[in-house]
TrEMBL record:
Residues annotated as domain Xylose isomerase-like TIM barrel: 26-251
Designated name of the protein: D-psicose/D-tagatose/L-ribulose 3-epimerase
Species: Arboricoccus pini
Superkingdom: Bacteria
Pfam families: AP_endonuc_2
InterPro entries recorded: IolE/XylAMocC-like (IPR050312), Xyl_isomerase-like_sf (IPR036237), Xyl_isomerase-like_TIM-brl (IPR013022)
Length: 297
């Protein structure tokens, strides 16, 4: 059974005590199993305070982040590699202390637009760092998810096939592919085929829509995506992610190009996302059970 998650940026821009209370309590109130907390700045997360809120509300936690230019482990710069590894290890420590199950995102390069392709030496440096971090994460049963994103947010992983290839080359069992329908809608020739081919390498999944707003209001065939997940046998977390300038501030607003309000009521947005996901997952499971692959096209 897939655990359903909600990205904290639906509620808040940061992780102050007040923001933590609001995000955790409202996520739990809507019946989600976990909250995904951005860890762009690990030092902003008060572990003890967050632990109390999670326990009080009975939900789990995952983390996501993107490295920045100064911590880019795909850069080939030894100092940046050291800083990037230290950043990732800091997040592993926080996840360990909060019983977090996953650390996902652009953890293999900088989060932002590049103006030249990656070098082989740079990517291999990223492999080396991630092997070491994965070994530490495995001690606490933490999965690292390599998020496959669009060409404007990294030059390393833009397709599911590239993500699978990177997992194979790193060779750590707790490193998986993190897929996201928003990015797949931009980069994949066939989202369904990409999900099926990634299969057992998928460790985390983001839902949303092409406009980053309400699910079902964009151009993504979400019903087909859910059916592909069921066919692939995916049983990991499914987390809804959405951004609006109503909530997010800089630097995220600028990096993601969130220039207009696609929604203003995060509660209504999240409530709709959970219902939408549950209905489509149920339909996907029923179609698979009753009709097999023939009903998936």
């Amino acid at each position: 059974m897939n655990k359903l998650g909600l990205h904290a940026n639906v509620w808040v821009a940061g992780w102050s005590h007040d923001e933590c209370v609001r995000a955790v309590s409202q996520t739990a109130e809507l019946g989600f199993d976990l909250i995904e907390v951005p860890a762009l700045d690990p030092g902003s997360i008060d572990v003890d305070f967050t632990a109390k809120q999670l326990e009080k509300n009975g939900i789990g936690i995952t983390f996501s982040l993107g490295l920045d230019e100064s911590t880019d482990i795909s850069s080939g710069d030894p100092e940046k590699l050291k800083r990037g590894e230290a950043r990732l290890r800091d997040v592993v420590s926080i996840a360990r202390d909060l019983n977090g199950s996953h650390i996902c995102g652009i953890i293999y390069s900088a989060f932002g637009k590049y103006f030249q392709p990656p070098t082989q030496a740079g990517v291999e440096g990223s492999f080396d760092v991630l092997r070491r971090v994965a070994e530490e994460a495995a001690k606490s049963n933490i999965t690292l998810g390599l998020e496959v994103v669009n060409r404007y947010e990294t030059n390393v992983l833009n397709t599911a096939a590239q993500g699978v290839d990177m997992c194979k080359k790193i060779g750590a069992p707790n490193i998986k592919v993190h897929l996201d329908v928003y990015h797949m809608n931009i980069e994949e020739a066939d989202m369904e085929a990409a999900i099926l081919e990634a299969g057992p390498y998928i460790g985390y999944f983001h839902t949303g829509d092409s406009n980053r707003g309400y699910m079902g209001t964009g151009t993504i065939d979400l019903a087909r995506a859910f059916k592909a997940l069921v066919r692939a046998g995916y049983e990991g977390p499914i987390t809804f992610e959405s951004f609006s300038s109503t909530v997010v501030g800089q630097p995220l607003e600028g990096i993601l190009g969130i220039w207009r309000n696609l929604w203003e009521d995060g509660y209504d947005l999240a409530k709709h996302a959970k219902a939408f996901t549950e209905v489509h997952l149920k339909s996907a499971h029923e179609a698979h059970k009753r009709g097999g692959a023939g009903l998936f096209r």
